[in-house]
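To: structure subgroup
Subject: Chain for Friday's discussion

All,

I'm putting the inputs and outputs inline so they're searchable in the archive.
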Amino acid sequence: MKSPNSIADLVVGAHHTAFSCRDYEAARRFFVDVLGFKVVGEMLDRSGDGLDVVVAMPGARCSWAMLEMGGYHIELFKWLAPADGRKLEMRQNDIGYTHVCMQVRNIDEVHRRLTAAGYQPLSQPGNMREGRAKPFYAKGPEGCIVEFCEYPMGA
């Protein structure tokens, strides 16, 4: 039975995942040049327009980009003010968001190219769920974890 406070009938779908970084250019290169996202909006010194109110950080300023691929978006932030964010080392069993997954073709070639580009895969591609999923995780910029998964039999 649906909760009387459910908003399920109002949710259209997933739109984006946000990534906060210290090295904006390195993160942008990873998502745009390596993964193939397109820049659909960008401001190198964004402030005002209610940003500080929405993020609950008075005086907030950031470099910002909205990146898109196939209807999915990554929102990229480098906070200029306040600039004292903490870097958190996350493991997959830690509580909260732990990774983003990109569906790919030819998982072995993805692994090879990421390694050649200087990114650190955490393993070789696996074979899971009786061959229905072939994933591996890799460290992206600033240690963000990105899963890459091929679904040979369909997602």
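Points worth raising on Friday:
The first strand starts at residue 16 and ends at 20.
The chain has two domains: 16-81, 100-150.

D.
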